[in-house]
Every structure is written in structure tokens, then in C-alpha cells.
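ok trying this again, last paste got cut off
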Amino acid sequence: MNWNNPLKPAELTENRLIDAIMEGHFSIGSNLPAERELADQLGVTRPTLREALQRLARDGWLEIHQGKSTRVRDYWHEGNLGVLGAIARRSTNLPEDFVPNLLFVRQLLAPTYARLAVENEPENVMSALDGYAQLPELPQAFASFDWQLHHKLTVLSGNPIFTLILNGFSSLYQPMACIYFDSIHSRHNSRAFYAELYSAARTSDPHAAEEITLRVMKDSLSIWQTTIKGG
């Protein structure tokens, strides 16, 4: 069985419409062209367009009323995790404040799942940190290790919602992390974090894990804002 099937026409249409919305071609509060006209513009059949529109309405991008024009919703305030995931998959077309906002949310979540992971399975947390001291000074190596660590911590927390939220940003995490870890200061900061978290797991101290993680998540946001965003 081929699991790598290309996107279906409705999925391609959905992606093209999301790009058009995010690029401002169809601004928040505006109405989309009539169905026949929009289908012609996109080069798709009307049934394909209807399927795409229904998917976008489900996630909060659009508002559809029978007999009325389809309206672009204020997706930042009316959208759901589907909107968030779609935005996160567009690493080259992100709003300027998206990554800092995402890091702030991680700052709220990561200390909790780190505490729970150390509380539940400290030995497995230590195993997840194996090799941190030997990481080569390469952004890609740190980005990969950091993703795998945080993913493992969410799993070990025992709350699968943490994992589902993190997975929603898997396609964005790697390219953004490579930019972040291009700074030697970022790599040094994270290597120190791994060492302290390992120590907290070794001594089965979940509260220390929470405090360490909170401090480092705050540092990460500060580093991104001053070093990365500020150039």
C-alpha cells in the first residue's frame, strides 16, 4: 500500500485558499467571490470547491450561510486548533509575532509536562537525555535532540493532550529550531538545561524540573526576541 499519496484536489484547494486568506487576498470580514467564479479562478470543479469550503468552515476560517456569500472569519479569534496547525505548517508565511507567541505558550506548558514526566518516570527522562553532553555543535543536531526530548517529556507526562498539541507544530519546530540553535548562546543555554533536567530526574525532584524548565523557557523566548528577531 502506498501511504504517500499526493494531496487530493479538495486538500490542494483548501491550502490555496488558506494561503490567499493569510496573504490578505481575502481579508478578514470580506466575502469570497460567488462559488462559480471562485471555482473558475482556482481551476477546480464546484463539488471540489464545496468540499474545501466545508473543511475551512469546520476549522473556523470561513462562515457559510445558505443563500448568502461566504465570509472570511476572524480566524485568530474564531478559529480552532485546525487553524493553528495550518498556520504552523507555513514556516515561510508566518505572522511576525507567531513564533514569540508560540514560545510563550510553550513556556506555560513545558514546565508542567516536565514536572509530570519526572514525577511519573524519572528513569525514562534520564534515558531521553542520554547523549546531550556529546551533541555536536550543529544547529540541526540540537534541533533534532530538542524536539525528541520535548516529545518524550509530553509522552512521559501521562497526559496525551500535551503530545497532541506539540505534534501540531512538528513541521514548524525543526526549521525554527535550526534558526534558534544557530546561536552558540542558544546551544550553551540548552545544553545547561539538559544537564540540570538530568540532575532533577536523577534525584527524582519534579519541582526542580518544573522550575528549571520554566526558567529556560523564559530564556528561550528572550533569546529569540533579542538575538533572532532583533538580528
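PB: full thing came through this time. The first helix runs from residue 9 to 22.
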